[in-house]
Inverse folding.
């Protein structure tokens, strides 16, 4: 039995000399910095099914800390799927339940467009830095 996926286009980069796409399953870097009562989590790479548990773990640690705010900097994220979005929505809900603030920072691109299409920017207190950048116009 052959499964055919019509209208499927694979946009992943290909390895030179190979017919298979290059896939990095753990292409996510997280860095954490605390200042006063605010934690900033800088996320770089891809947030998807294979990496979202790493992000969830760091966000859970932030929710357990004695902080009034958590900032999630997604300006270095090149891809995010619905599982990554679900992690952010859950973290935002947990923050609101405990009277803390969660803020998400993007810089346009695929993540900014994803937030726009899913209409979650306001719920996540998302701020798009490309709106502040005069060179982006």
């Amino acid at each position: 039995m052959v499964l055919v996926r019509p209208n499927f286009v694979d946009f992943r980069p290909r390895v030179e000399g190979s017919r298979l796409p290059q896939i990095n399953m753990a292409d996510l870097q997280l860095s954490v910095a605390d200042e006063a009562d605010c934690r900033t989590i800088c996320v770089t790479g891809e947030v998807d099914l294979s990496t979202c548990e790493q992000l969830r773990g760091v966000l859970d640690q932030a929710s357990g800390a004695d902080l009034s705010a958590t900032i999630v900097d997604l300006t270095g994220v090149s891809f995010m799927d619905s599982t990554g979005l679900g992690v952010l929505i859950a973290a935002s809900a947990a923050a609101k339940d405990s009277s803390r603030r969660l803020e998400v920072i993007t810089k346009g691109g695929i993540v900014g467009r994803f937030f726009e299409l899913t209409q979650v920017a306001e719920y996540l207190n998302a701020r798009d830095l490309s709106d502040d950048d005069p060179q982006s116009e």
About this structure: The helical segments are 52-64, 82-97, 109-118. The first strand starts at residue 28 and ends at 35. Residues 25 and 80 are 13 Å apart (CA to CA).
